[in-house]
Specification:
Layout lengths: L7 E5 L4 H11 L6 E5 L5 E5 L7 E5 L6 H16 L4 E6 L18 H12 L3 E5 L14 E4 L2 H11 L4 E5 L5 H11 L2 E11 L2 E8 L6 E9 L3 H12 L4 E9 L5 H7 L4 E5 L11 E4 L2 H12 L11
Parallel strand pairs: 1-4, 4-5, 5-6, 6-7, 8-9, 8-11, 11-12, 12-13, 13-14
Antiparallel strand pairs: 2-3, 9-10
Helix pairs in contact: 1-8, 2-3
């Protein structure tokens, strides 16, 4: 008797509904029906309004703060597990709390590890995510993790721009590996920024390692939060003789006055993906969708085919 392939069903957490719709459409499916009941004190309860028994369930939701977004993902995973779904894949385009991936001082948590354990306990049998803040986070899971790279989206876009005298830049030492991978793919030069912080999100000093005079620079990073690092780096590079400075960042966290910083800066443009919805429009911010990439990988996961061709870095 031949084994029947379980049906693939797609459900969205409320914070990622727009992206989930694009992913489902690219896949050739529709989003499943989820109703969320909310109590007067703010407690909420998601409910699948269709059977998922024996199916492969993809639950799509980025877990950026506030913590309700992570909690919603956990509740939906638990609901799918208790509804007897056969495979439960947590599709987390932006894996929140990832900056806490180690103990950088005494008596602090390793939140990225804690989140991994919570996702598995809630019922996730597989994780699909993109551009983790640290590659080591994959090792925090006991379940399979498909770690995608936004380079598969950004590199073709950069090649289409056809920019001459191109230099790839890392805004800090930690991103040097990513910058070198981009430079290899684009056959370009590399420079690195060295920064010192007085506290989280506050830069006290920045220096540039390398020459950008007469070059068109592209800063590469996994996320943009307050935009302080990117805008400081862009202004420094223009002062050092760069012809133009663009930035590409996978996850547009863009908290506080980040939008205003980007608008005031010497950045020509900031290119991001839609892992996190923008809070408002900006003439300097361009969004490239990651929906087709996730849909293709989810198709291959569901049909048990290799996804190695989707890893450029």
């Amino acid at each position: 008797m031949s084994q029947v392939t379980p049906e693939a069903k797609f459900f969205a957490c409320s914070q990622s509904t727009a992206l989930a719709k694009k992913i489902a459409e690219s896949y050739g499916a529709k989003l499943g029906n989820v109703i969320t009941s909310t109590y007067s004190d703010g407690e909420f309860q998601p409910s699948f309004e269709e059977s998922v028994r024996g199916d492969r369930v993809f639950i799509i939701g980025s877990t950026f703060p506030n913590s309700d977004h992570l909690m919603e993902m956990l509740l939906m995973l638990d609901a799918a597990k208790r509804a007897s779904a056969r495979h439960i894949t947590a599709v987390i385009p932006y894996y929140g709390w990832a900056r806490q991936d180690r103990k950088d001082k005494p008596r602090v948590p390793i939140a990225a590890k804690l989140v991994a354990k919570m996702l598995e306990t809630a019922g996730a049998t597989r994780i699909i995510t993109m551009d983790l803040h640290a590659d080591q986070i994959q090792g925090f899971f006991e379940k399979p993790v498909d770690h995608l790279f936004a380079s598969t989206i950004f590199l073709p876009h950069l090649q289409e721009l056809g920019t001459e005298n191109l230099t790839i830049a890392s805004p800090d030492m930690g991103g040097s590996k990513r910058a070198y991978a981009y430079s290899k793919a684009l056959n370009s030069e590399v420079v690195i920024c060295y920064k010192q912080r007085v506290q989280a999100n506050v830069i006290s000093h920045m220096e540039l390692i390398g020459d950008v005079k007469g070059r068109n620079v592209v800063l590469v990073d996994d996320m943009v939060d307050t935009a302080g690092t990117l805008t400081t780096a862009a202004d420094l590079m223009i002062e050092r003789g760069a012809l133009s400075v663009r930035a590409i960042c996978t996850h547009p966290v863009l908290s506080g006055d980040a939008y205003e910083k980007v608008e005031r800066s010497k950045l020509l443009e900031l290119i991001v993906t839609d892992t996190i919805p923008l809070k408002k429009e900006s003439k300097k911010i361009k969004v490239l969708s990651c929906a087709d990439l996730f849909a293709e990988v989810m198709t291959r996961v569901h049909t048990n085919r290799s996804i190695s061709s989707k890893f450029l870095m």
